[in-house]
Amino acid sequence: RKEVEQDPGPFNVPEGATVAFNCTYSNSASQSFFWYRQDCRKEPKLLMSVYSSGNEDGRFTAQLNRASQYISLLIRDSKLSDSATYLCVQIGGSQGNLIFGKGTKLSVKP
Amino acid sequence: DAGVIQSPRHEVTEMGQEVTLRCKPISGHNSLFWYRQTMMRGLELLIYFNNNVPIDDSGMPEDRFSAKMPNASFSTLKIQPSEPRDSAVYFCASTLGKELFFGSGTQLSVL
Fold it and tell me: When comparing pLDDT for B32 and A31, which is higher?
C-alpha cells in the first residue's frame, strides 16, 4: 500500500463552488502534513501546512483526522486560478523525508 | 534569492548515453532532495542529502543512477546508461526547515 493516497480526479467544478479533497496516509507516526499546489508544467509549491487543530488561510481550510488517518483540503468560492493539481505531503520515515501523494487534479470552469 | 536552480531545463538523449542533471540549492539550505515525476507514478523521492551527506537513497531505482553532493551549493544526478523508461521530469528541492522549495525541473527524454 502506497504511503500517501489521493483520488486523482479530475474534479471539474464551476466557479464559486466549494470543493474538498481527502488524502489518506499509512504512517500513523507521522507528525507533519502539508498541501502543495502544482500548476501544469511547473514545480510544486507549498500551499499550506496542516495542523492538528485545523487551519484556515482565506478560502482554503486544511484539517487532519488522526483517528482515521486522513487529511483534507477545502476550497470555498473556487476561482479559475485554483485550477491545478493538489499534492498531499507527509513527513515520514525515520529520517524525515517528505512523501508526496500523486495529486488530485482540479479544474474550475467559468 | 534566485531559488533552486536546475540545469538543463530539457534534455533529449539516446538510449545508452550518460545523462547528468545539475542542481544548485538555495544558499543556506541544509537539505537537498532529488525527485522524479511521471504521470503513472507521481513524485517519487530518489535520494536526499543532509549537510551534503546522503541520508536515504532507497528510492534510487538501480545502479544506473548515482547522486553526489560535493559541497553545499551543488549536486548532480547521473544516469549511466540511460534507458527510455528513465524519461520523466526530475526535480531538485532544498529546505532549511519544513517548506520544500523546488527547482523548475529537468524534462528528460530518452529515445
Answer: B32
